[in-house]
Design the sequence.
C-alpha cells in the first residue's frame, strides 16, 4: 500500500520545518553560523586569528609582515610569531613600544604610540628583521 498524496507532501514540509528549527536553536544570535567550539581569545598562548578590527604583524621566516604596517594612533596591534625562534617588536629609538620576547608559536600585543609619525622597529634577537610602524 502506498502513502497517500497528502502524506507524501507533509513529510518534506515537516523535515524542512525541523531543519529551520534546528538551525535557529543552534544559532548564537548572530548572522554567522554556530561553530562547534568557542572562538579562541587573542592571548600569549597561541597564534590565533586576530580579533576583527585589530592590526596584525606576523613574524615568519625571520621577517615581519607587513614590514611597514599603517595603524591609527593608540591602536592595539597583535603580533603573531609563526617561527620556532623567539622574536620581539622593539622601537629602535626611545621606548615607544616593545613587545618583549614572544616565543615561537606564540602571540602578543602592543599599543601604537599616541603621536603620529614613523617608528622604526627591530627584533632584538635578529637585527636583520626590521620594519617601520607608520602611525596616522
Sequence:
Amino acid at each position: 500500500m502506498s502513502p497517500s498524496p497528502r502524506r507524501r507532501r507533509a513529510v518534506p514540509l515537516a523535515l524542512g520545518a525541523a531543519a529551520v528549527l534546528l538551525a535557529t536553536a543552534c544559532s548564537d544570535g548572530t548572522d554567522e553560523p554556530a561553530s562547534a567550539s568557542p572562538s579562541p581569545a587573542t592571548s600569549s598562548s597561541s597564534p590565533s586569528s586576530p580579533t576583527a578590527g585589530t592590526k596584525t604583524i606576523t613574524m615568519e621566516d625571520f621577517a615581519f609582515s607587513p614590514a611597514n604596517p599603517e595603524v591609527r594612533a593608540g591602536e592595539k596591534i597583535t603580533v603573531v610569531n609563526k617561527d620556532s625562534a623567539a622574536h620581539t617588536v622593539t622601537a629602535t629609538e626611545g621606548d615607544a613600544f616593545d613587545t618583549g620576547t614572544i616565543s615561537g608559536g606564540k602571540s602578543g600585543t602592543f599599543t601604537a604610540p599616541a603621536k603620529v609619525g614613523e617608528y622604526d622597529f627591530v627584533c632584538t634577537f635578529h637585527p636583520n628583521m626590521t620594519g617601520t610602524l607608520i602611525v596616522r
User: Anything to note?
Assistant: Residues 13-51 have pLDDT under 50 and may be disordered. The first strand starts at residue 55 and ends at 60. The longest helix spans residues 5-26.
